[in-house]
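User: Hi! Is it possible to get a structure for several chains at once, not just one? Here's what I have:
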Amino acid sequence: KAGVTQTPRYLIKTRGQQVTLSCSPISGHRSVSWYQQTPGQGLQFLFEYFSETQRNKGNFPGRFSGRQFSNSRSEMNVSTLELGDSALYLCASSLAGQGSYNEQFFGPGTRLTVL
Amino acid sequence: DQQVKQNSPSLSVQEGRISILNCDYTNSMFDYFLWYKKYPAEGPTFLISISSIKDKNEDGRFTVFLNKSAKHLSLHIVPSQPGDSAVYFCAASAASGNTPLVFGKGTRLSVIA
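Assistant: Yes, the chains can be modeled jointly so their relative placement is included. Here is the combined structure:
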C-alpha cells in the first residue's frame, strides 16, 4: 500500500507570495491533518479534514487555509507569506480521523523557505 | 500552555543499553498516547501507542509505560541500537472527545556505538 505523499518536497518563496501544498493520503483513509514543524517547537496542529469537511482547526491565522477533495486528497494554502512561515509542513492521514483510537501516518513533508 | 511536555531536548546512550524517554501531560482528558520517531528529512513514523485503560504496552524492543496519577509516560528502548538515533515525539489526545493530537517538542536520542 502506498504511503502518504506530499508535493512539492521543497519550495522557496518570497514574502507576500502565496503557496499551495498538496497531500495524497493512504488509500482508504478519509482523514487528513496538517501540521507545521519549526525548530524547537514540535508539531503544531493546523487543521483536519474528514470527508471534505474541516473538522478541527488549530490556532493559526486565517492566512492558512485548506480543503479536501472527494478522493480525500488535500491541499493547504498560505497567503501573504511571512518569514516566520518558513517551516516543514507535514500531512498525516488516518482511517477514522483525530479523536479516535488510531494512529496517523505522516508524509515526508514539504520544506517551505520564505525569503 | 504546553499540554504535552518532553523536558529533555536530548539524550545520549551507549549502544546495547536502555534508552528512557519521558513525557508529561497536563490535560486529564487525554486518554490515548503515542510515540513517533523522526529521522531528518522524513515525516514522523508511528512507533507505539497506549490507551489509558492500560499501564504498559510492549512491541519488540519498545515498551511504553503510563502512570495516569502522575500524568507521565515513558518510552523504553532495550537494547538501544545506532539506528534508533532520531527525534522522538510524544503525542496525546482525548480520543473520546474528537480532539486533535497534541505533540511534545521532541527528544533527540543519540545512540553511540
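The longest strand of chain B covers residues 86-93. Chain B has no helices and eleven strands.

User: Great, thank you!
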